[in-house]
Amino acid sequence: MNSQVKFFSGRYSTPIAKEIVSSFGVKLNSSSVVNFSDGEFEPSFDETVRGAHVFLIQSTPPPSDNLMELLLMIDAAKRASAYKIIAVIPYFGYARQDKKGKPRVPIGAKLTANLLTAAGVDRVMTMDLHADQIQGFFEVPVDHLYASTLFIPYINSLKLSNLVVASPDMGGSRRANSYAKFLNSEVVICYKHREKANKISKMFIIGDVKGKDVVLVDDMVDTAGTLTKAADLMLEHGANSVRACCTHGVLSKNAYDNIEKSKLQELVITNTIHKEHKSSKIKVLSVADLFSNTISSVLENKSISNNFIC
Which residues are identified as catalytic? Predict the structure, then answer.
């Protein structure tokens, strides 16, 4: 089977790609990129992909070159007569643009899905989309993995006797409720009002955190403004400790300063986004085995539901 399966990586996601293929039991196949003087680039496969299942591993955070490189690789695989083309996108960029929140704005997640489909992708694997409905933006199968498969065992290992699961905003209440069900804990929600993107004007807690060990759960952490404000507010309301589990460590602008200055005990993220982290409070869990197991199940036409906790 492995002779008919080939794994390639975009330049951004080479570290996680190497982990995934190592877990699968093979090596990353060879590809290269030609860079032109004006900034254009041209990826190519250095070996045949004819008749093969081709897995292209690339997260798509800014800059848009990461997405463009993935699109060009899909097109190259299609034109080279690959049998199936599967885009493995640990972090799906533009997922926050899943609806029109105000007039005259794009739905970036739908546009990205259209671009991937138009390029010729046959299947998409990704993790913790900002909104579950993004799966419906595609006309091809989407394997949507959840970092809770890693986070819940980790939280259980902490043996917190007064555990409460919290969401840093109303939009994450469903996620927090799913975690709470498996951890047999209560749920607390933070209500926040934004003046504009990445700027919170007010926040308050719905629920009781006094004497509790709080675990905030979210799909991503960007500037860490919401997360750290929520952590400080919960400690002000009598929480014993506050830590956070967030799948995608976007960590832009002054995120590391916010984390270091906050009262967060730790921030647990995954390696879907490749960064050199600048905070001793950050712990990184690898998603490589989860993606590898899912790839094996898909190739063998087996159910992937046993990979999920919630």
Answer: 192
Of 245, 244, 213, 60, whose CA–CA distance to 147 is shortest? Answer: 245
Look up residue 227 and give its two tokens: 């997360």
Q: In whole angstroms, what is the distance from residue 150 CA to residue 288 CA?
A: 11
pLDDT single digits (tens) 126-178: 999 999 999 999 999 999 999 999 999 999 999 998 999 999 988 899 999 99
| Three-state helix/strand/coil letters over 45-95 | ECCCCCCCEEEEECCCCCCCHHHHHHHHHHHHHHHCCCCEEEEEECCCCCC
Contact call for residues 7 and 26 (beta carbons, < 8 A): yes
- DSSP result, 109-152: HHHHHHHHHHHT-SEEEEE--SSGGGGGG-SS-EEEE-THHHHH
What whole-number distance in Å separates Cα of residue 22 and Cα of residue 40? Answer: 31
Q: What is the pLDDT of residue 1?
A: 46
Instruction: Please tell me whether the peptide bond between 63 and the residue prior to it is cis, using omega within 30 degrees of 0.
Output: yes
Beta pairing class for 41-45 and 31-35: antiparallel
Q: Tens digits of per-residue pLDDT, 9-39?
A: 999 999 999 999 999 999 999 999 999 999 9
Q: Token match 């970092």: residue? A: 147
Give every residue of the chain whose pLDDT is below 50, as ranges.
1-2
The token pair that represents 188 in the structure block: 């607390």
Q: What is the pTM for the complete model shown?
A: 0.94
Q: In Å, what is the CA distance from 101 to each residue of 15, 106, 107? A: 35, 9, 9
